[in-house]
Structure formats: structure tokens, C-alpha cells
Amino acid sequence: MKTIALFLLISGSNNVVGGFVLDQRSIVPSQRRDYHSTTATTTSRLWASFFASEATDPVRMTESLFTQVISDVDDTLKSSGGVNIGGVALGGIDVQYARGVMYPGVEEFMLQISLCTRKDPTSPPPKIAILTARAEEFKAALELKESSSLAKAFRRAGEAEGIPKWGLGPVLYGSVAEWIVQERKGLRKFTNFERLLQQDPSGRIMKYVYVGDTGELDQEAGETMLRDYAPFVKAVFLHCVSGEIGPVYVPPPKFINGRPLVFFRTYVGAAAAAVQLGLMTPLGLQKVIHSARDRLSSEPPESDKWTDLLQDIQTAKRFL
Questions:
Q1: What pLDDT score does 294 carry?
Q2: Average of per-residue pLDDT across 293-299
Q3: Which of 43, 86, 224, 261 lies at a C-alpha separation of 20 to 30 Å from 232?
Q4: What is the pTM of this model?
Q5: Mind listing the pLDDT tens digit for each residue in 153-164?
Q6: What torsion, rounded to 10 degrees, do the Cα atoms 249, 280, 53, 42 define?
Q7: CA-based radius of gyration for the chain
């Protein structure tokens, strides 16, 4: 039987780290948001229902050594700019940020979740796994290269925490057909997630947090993950984006199989929810805020980007 070393999960390397070796087996398969529209009491009850299910379900209480963050690319890590050709979106719909611009705080958010949820503080956290609808046939043009500004930003975030070479890890692509036929993108991301699960079918070493957006059927993929593989998935976070300039509605969180699905507008808002769920420390939240502020420093203060960020920072202060 083939084996995949734990280090493959963390870095993409074939080396063995920590003496762990995993069996490879098949697996059976708009208006500006108003946080007060969902009251603090209602939100607290939603979180309470999650913790209640967590405390009474022995399967979900099974601890893993690591949590790997799984991420989409366009409109999740960086903006698609809402560019389309012949009615076919080239990656997503977001028009708030220009095409290719990284979202403020995204690398710090994913790093802090990876750090908070590992059981051994001396072990390096897993690299970010990428599930994308980008066509593998166009990999030469669309590949996330180590020299890209995105990859460099993630590496710098890891280096600042004393974790050299942390950053983007394995990439699971889509196909040309799925890139063109929008309805197939969610299914491909889910089947790619099933491929990723083959690294550790037991879930004893690795569990997952999925981060996507509301523009390209990531919600369909995330909800299917929670329905079919809830013991393996700690949470799903969805970045709320729009193809129109103006306010964007952010729905309240919901739960599928006792697992949280969180909608957010900025990564500070996502980090505040992560603290409530025990997926990030308050110090980690502070670092996400600092990272987001720093990336927006060149934007004029009247920008709607600052409006969204400052609103989430105000909410996040309750958890610092």
C-alpha cells in the first residue's frame, strides 16, 4: 500500500517529519451589511449550539494533531476584479478590489488558525492547501508560482512567526470544462477536497478549515463538505463578494451537522468569529488587525474598503 508522509501534508515534500506516516486509501465518497440585524444575543445562541454539539458528540471530539486551512484563490486570497470574457467570469465577481490585489489580513488569518489549532507548538503548521476551479490545462499561465507576490506574502507571514518556508502548499486544480461551465465548479472543489482527505482517512492527524467566497459556488462545496464529512471539517468561512459597486449583505452564521458556516466581509471579521469558535487566540486576532491595517495603508480614508474594515475592527474589539 502506498504511503504519504505527514510532511507532504505540511510542506509538499516527500520527507517524513515527526515519525508519522499516513496510509493512502480510497475514500467513499444589496445594502450595507448591518451587524445589528442579527443581534448579539442571537449570534451567541448560534455559537452556543455549536459548543453544545461539540461537547456531546464523541466523533467530533476526536482530536487531531494539526488543522490544515484549505482555500480557494480568486475572490478568497485575491480579487478577480470581476473580469469576464464573453459572459464567462475569469475567476470570480468581486469588483471592490482591482484584479490580483490580495485581501487585507488574509495571510495572517490563515497562519493564525494554523498555529492556534496545532497540538504540538514545536511542530511547523501545515501549509495552505489550494482548491481552485482554475483549469489545469492552463497551469502554465495560472499557476501559483513561488515567485508570485501572493506566495511571498504568505512566506513573510510565516517568517515573522519564526516559521521559515511556511505558505502555500498543495494545489488541486479544475479543468477547462469546469472553468467555463460555472455550475460545475462547486462539485470539482468538493471532489478535490475528497482527494485531499486521502492523506489521512482517519482524521486523527489532520482536520480542516475551508475558506472560500460567495461568488463561485464555494458555498455549495463548503456545505457539501459539512454534510458529508463533518467529523473532518472544523468550520467553513465564506468571503462575501459582489459584482456590483456598493454595500454587501453579510448573512448570519449557520450550522450544518453542528459545524459552523461563517460569512464575512473582511478577514478581521472572520478572525473575530474564529476567536469565538476557539480556532484563533485573541493575540492572533490582533495580528490579523495589524496586517489588514498595514495592507490598506495606501488607501484613502474615505474608501469603502476602510469602511468595511473599521466596522469589523470595532466588532472585533469585544474579543481582545
A1: 98
A2: 98
A3: 43
A4: 0.81
A5: 999 999 999 999
A6: -40
A7: 19
Helical residues (DSSP H) of 136-266, grouped into ranges:
139-142, 149-160, 176-180, 185-197, 218-229
**Rounded CA gap, 210 and 94, in Å?**
19
Domain ranges for the chain = 33-319
* Rounded Cα–Cα distance for residues 66 and 125 (Å): 7
Retrieve residue 78's grid coordinates.
485575491
Pairing of β 206-213 and β 88-89: unpaired
Q: How many CB atoms lie within 10 A of CB 307?
A: 14
- 240: Cβ contacts below 8 Å, ≥ 6 apart: 33, 213, 214, 248, 249, 250, 251, 263, 264, 265
79-94 confidence digits (pLDDT tens): 999 987 766 666 789 9
- Matching residue, cell 461551465: 181
Coil, strand or helix at 312: helix
Please, are residues 200 and 9 in contact by the beta-carbon 8 Å criterion? yes
What CA–CA distance (Å, rounded) separates 207 from 19?
A: 19
CB 263, CB 214: distance < 8 Å: yes
Residue 138 identity: F
Which positions ≥6 away from 32 have C-beta within 8 Å? 246, 247, 248, 307
